[in-house]
Amino acid sequence: MSAGVGSLLLALAAQTATAGTRELKEIRESGELVVLTRNAPTTVYFNRDGRRSGPEYELVEAFADSLGVDAVYRQYSSTGAILEALRAGKGDLAAAGLTITEDRQRSLRFGPPYQRITQQVVCRRDTTQPENLRELAAVDRVHVVADSSYAELLEALRQQGYPVPDSREIPNVGTHALLRAVWDREIDCTVADSHITAINQRYYPELLSPMNLSREQRLAWAMPPDAAELDAAITRWLEEYRSAGHLDDLHEKYYGFFRVFDYVDVRYLIRRTDQRFPRYRAWFREAAEEHGLSFVLLAAQAYQESHWSENARSPTGVRGIMMLTRLTAEEVGVSDRLDPRQSIFGGAEYMARMKERFADEVTEPDRTFMALAAYNIGRAHMHDAQVLARRHGLSPYRWRDIKQVLPLLSDPKYYRTLKYGYARGHEPVRYVQRIREYHHVLANELADGPVKAIPHQAALSGP
Question: Are 266 and 200 in contact (CB under 8 A)?
């Protein structure tokens, strides 16, 4: 190829890469920020109320608000399609859980990272469990999303001489679909980002991630290569958003309850959803509607309390499906704590009262999390936790901060200085953690018809 022809081709490629790129001024004047994304629980989805939700959605909405424009979403079926559309000038930015890779940086610009993940090999726990690349190479074939960072990583490892199995790139699908295929035994293994694996293990408990395929990687929004002004605006905004604690709040909301995955516990929950829950379902829904609570969350709370056993008892004297104390039962008019209907309605009323006992500055979802903790440990000890939060320069209105100081209620250095004294402060932290975990699974298990796959961030109020 001659030097002249080569220069011409490079110029044409540059024009194609930046086709349709809008200046920041144009975006503001149009009143719209065009965002390319995909439908998934880690990006943008419709919740049980039929409204858009998801971590990428909330980030984009906050940024669009800072520009004084509306976000307009264009949805694509795969990462490859999103990147192709972005290169073709069909959007201002792509917000779709995109990993920053060397190959992508050759044709696109990435904003500052907002999340860090690792790529993991995912298989079924009852099939194969490769723990290193040599064992992975023995797997017949690994299926991955086409044009993904997973395919790019496998090829890079192969080029570096590492033992890597044959891989098949599947076009026009998302990672979640391939994880389902692993669970259905249609394929042996796939590769997924760690946060995607964590969410899907709650739907498909047999999924196992026996090894990390990468070191820590960064997720960021992608833009056309010449979108320098937009990139600068995103960088300034994200720094302010992060400094104000909003990014930590967002991660807490969507991923804060994913800690150690308990396969056996989730399997029992799914089984009991089929075997025990139908007997109580109508009462949970009726009680939730009467007291303005989430039906799914109330059911998750009851499962944490008693595993939906109406005859449950504890050595401390709490009883019934909502494990009410004698005093609490009297307060909410429950005459028989072992009567499941009385217990469910009594527990719902008590939970609603707990939600009312926090200041207006406590907003959702923190109000719900703090009310759950108060149900477990008592409103008095939550008052002490809020006092401690203030002493430590933390917010008394955010669950993310309150759960840091609750364990201090069992430390004499702290509880001797508080009005209500000693409490087992670790318990309400675990209590809320488990309920959020169960809520996530149940939101999927209890959904009807076409919304079966809607993930955990259904609204925390309403049916």
Answer: no
CATH of domain 263-451: 1.10.530.10
Whole-number Cα distances in Å, 403 to 115, 138, 396, 415:
22, 45, 10, 15
* pTM: predicted TM-score of the whole model, two decimal places: 0.63
- CATH dotted code for 119-214: 3.40.190.10
Rounded Cα distance between 276 and 281, Å, is 9
The answer to whether domain 3-112+219-255 and domain 119-214 are alike in fold is yes
What are phi and psi for residue 93, nearest 5 degrees?
Answer: -155, 160
Residue type, 313: R
Q: Are strands 142-145 and 70-75 parallel, antiparallel or unpaired?
A: unpaired
427 is catalytic: no
Within 10 A of 397 (CB to CB), how many other CB atoms are there?
18
Give domain limits for the chain: 3-112+219-255, 119-214, 263-451
**Which residue among the candidates 56, 305, 310, 445 is catalytic per the annotation?**
305
Taking the C-alpha atoms of residue 455 and residue 257, their distance in angstroms, rounded to an integer, is 14
Encode pLDDT of 270-315 as tens digits. Answer: 889 999 999 999 999 999 999 999 999 999 999 999 999 999 987 6
Query: Quick check: helix, strand or coil at residue 170?
Result: strand
Cβ atoms of 284 and 278 closer than 8 Å: no
